[in-house]
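Quiz preparation item.
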């Protein structure tokens, strides 16, 4: 019950943010979410590092989101580049104080790519002409996939999808999730995105549903590597912020570039 209530609250706040907030408030909210997700990740991946080091990494990790504010992907990449250069300079300057410098660099750098760069694409999506509706499409695909995968897996699940990483996921659940994502996407397309073809929306839903599973399994790999059950405890019944956005970390960039290429080709 706690999980359901939290899920409803998150969904309501997300929709409220999506359709009522001005762009600066949306950007600030996504940046704060990214900061919490980075804090959770660095706590997991670099548990023995000084807290001041982790705070510095969080601040560096926010640079791609700051760069994404004007809605330009080049500035986002500029922010990522600065973050990586600063990480290298810091690691070299503190070389003797770091137990394993390369491990520190690789784990921190991965966090910049995996969380900072990927989540910054939510900001880029919002800045597009129909950004709010595209984000609604992304939300519908994710929610439709997760819900359908859960129930189809419970009813029909027999064959494990990836037992070594996530024993609860089944092939039947995966197929049900893809079907659910397409159905949810078609509803959003009909009401809010008439300029996009049904074929494009359907294929996009299939691609993003598959990537969402990859994102979920990717976070599971991280948690299994460091022997933690959840990324945090900030969301009752759901774990941490990173546990809730793991699918979006891959689907948001994918949708952004799919839309960009669709616009170019049409």
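Solution:
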């Amino acid at each position: 019950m706690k999980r359901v209530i939290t899920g409803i609250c998150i969904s309501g706040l997300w929709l409220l943010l999506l359709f009522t907030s001005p762009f600066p408030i949306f950007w600030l909210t996504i940046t704060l979410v990214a900061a919490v997700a980075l804090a959770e990740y660095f706590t997991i991946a670099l548990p023995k590092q000084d807290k001041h080091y982790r705070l510095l990494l969080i601040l560096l990790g926010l640079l791609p989101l700051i760069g994404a504010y004007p809605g330009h992907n080049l500035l986002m990449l500029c922010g990522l580049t600065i973050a990586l250069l600063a990480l290298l300079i810091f690691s070299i300057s503190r070389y003797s104080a770091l137990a394993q410098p390369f491990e520190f660099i690789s784990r921190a750098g991965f966090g910049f790519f995996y969380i900072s760069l990927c989540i910054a694409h939510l900001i880029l999506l919002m800045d597009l002409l129909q950004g709010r509706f595209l984000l609604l499409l992304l939300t519908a695909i994710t929610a439709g996939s997760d819900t359908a995968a859960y129930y189809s897996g419970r009813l029909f699940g027999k064959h494990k999808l990836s037992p070594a990483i996530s024993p609860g996921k089944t092939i039947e659940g995966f197929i049900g999730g893809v079907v659910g994502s397409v159905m949810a996407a078609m509803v959003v397309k009909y009401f809010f995105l008439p300029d996009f073809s049904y074929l494009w929306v359907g294929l996009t839903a299939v691609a993003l549903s598959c990537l969402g599973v990859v994102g979920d399994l990717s976070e599971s790999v991280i948690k299994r590597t460091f022997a933690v059950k959840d990324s945090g405890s900030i969301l009752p019944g759901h774990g941490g912020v990173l546990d809730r956005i793991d699918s979006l970390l891959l689907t948001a960039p994918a949708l952004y570039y799919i839309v960009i290429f669709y616009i170019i080709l049409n």
